[in-house]
Amino acid sequence: MRKALFLDRDDTIIRDPGYLSRVEQIEFFPGVLPRIAALRKKGFAVFIVTNQSGIGRGYFSEERLEEIHTALLDQMARQGALVDAINYCPLLPEDASNRRKPKPTMIFELAKEFDIDLPQSYFVGDKAVDIIAGQSAGCKTVLIAHKRNITEIPGLESCPLPDYIALTPEEALLYVLNDSDSKGENHNE
Ligand SMILES: [Mg+2]
C-alpha cells in the first residue's frame, strides 16, 4: 500500500477565480509545484479531489473541464509534480446522488483503485468540506487559512480541528514533508 497526498484544487494548488472555466485562468500558488514534486520523490501518490458543480449549474461542460484538467496536469508534470488521478463530482449540492466533499466517497474510490494507506495519507484543502472529507476517510488533514481567521471559516466549527493550519499552500505542503519525515524516523527507531 502507498501513502497519498490528496489535494483540493481551487484555492489549494491554483487560485480560484470563481467557477474556473478557461485554461488561461490556471494560476498556481508559489512554491506548490516543487513541494508536490518532493513529496512524489518520497513515494507519495498524488491526487486532486474537487467539487465541480459548475458543470451541474451549466456554467461549463464536462468536455471543457477535461480540457482544463489536461492542461493543468501537463503544466504540473513539466515541473515534476506528477498527479496520479483527478477525481471530481460535477453534481449540485442538492443532488442526492452526489459524491461531493464533505463526503469521503471520492477519496475512498481512489484509495481502492490505487491501493492507498489512508491513515498514512494527508488531505490538504482550504475549506471545511475538505477537512471533513479527509477526517471521514481517516487521513491527516491540513487546512490552508490564507488570510482568514479560522473562526471565520464556515463549517469548521462542526468538525475536529485539522492536524495543522497553514497560512499558505506552500506552508501546508512543507508541513506534510516534515511530518512524514519525522514519522519515517520513528519507524526506524
Ligand atoms: Mg478549495
Account of the protein in words:
37% of the residues are buried. By secondary structure, the protein is of the alpha/beta class. It has helices at 32-41, 53-56, 62-77, 105-114, 128-136, 169-188, and strands spanning 4-7, 45-51, 85-89, 122-125, 140-144, 164-166. The radius of gyration is 16 Å and the shape is globular. The mean pLDDT is 95. The chain has one domain: HAD superfamily/HAD-like (Rossmann fold, 3-Layer(aba) Sandwich), CATH 3.40.50. Helix 1 (32-41) runs parallel beside helix 6.
Describe the largest sheet.
6 strands, parallel
Q: What CATH architecture label applies?
A: 3-Layer(aba) Sandwich
Supply the number of structural domains.
Answer: 1
Could you name the CATH topology?
Answer: Rossmann fold
Strand residue content: 5-15%
Q: Total strand count, please?
A: 6
| Strand order in the largest sheet | 3-2-1-4-5-6
SSE ordering:
EHEHHEHEHEEH
What is the end-to-end distance? 21 Å
User: Helix segment count?
Assistant: 6
Helix proportion of residues, in percent? 25-40%
Shape annotation: globular
| Low-pLDDT segments, ≥5 res | none
State the name of the first-level CATH class. Answer: Alpha Beta
Question: What is the average of the pLDDT values?
Answer: 95
Radius of gyration: 16 Å
The CATH superfamily title: HAD superfamily/HAD-like
Structural class: alpha/beta
The unique ligands bound to this protein are: magnesium ion
